[in-house]
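Write out this protein's structure.
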Amino acid sequence: MDISINTPALFFPAISLVMLAYTNRFLAVASVVRNLHIQYNQGDKKKQLHGQIRNLKYRLRLIKNMQAFGVVSFLSCIFSMYFIYLEHMTFAHIMFGLTMLAFIVSLIMSLIEIQLSTKALELELSDMEDLEDPSIVEYLKKKFERE
């Protein structure tokens, strides 16, 4: 397969938007960490708080790695375009493959982080009510029974 300079150039807007989304996720998590730090220093050391802190530490590592793989994807995309410009197609193909691989890894980490953020919200809500985690089928049955 022969690629033109336009092929890796198509990744630029996608990678840029994903990196912006990752930065926004980082800022949101950083804000939550700061609030939890204040709660922890005020003496609120409930078991729930420890679970949230553990969850946030792991999410921060994931976001850091998501961003790192996003940067690797962006750089390899640039190198791919450069090798196409120099007409070194073997290196261009390798760099483009690395672009796609790094982007896929970054997106998979993002999916994992989204799952963890949902768990964190469930943990946050757990002290407000007795949460049962119904299956989707049970949830739908309850929804339709009410109507």
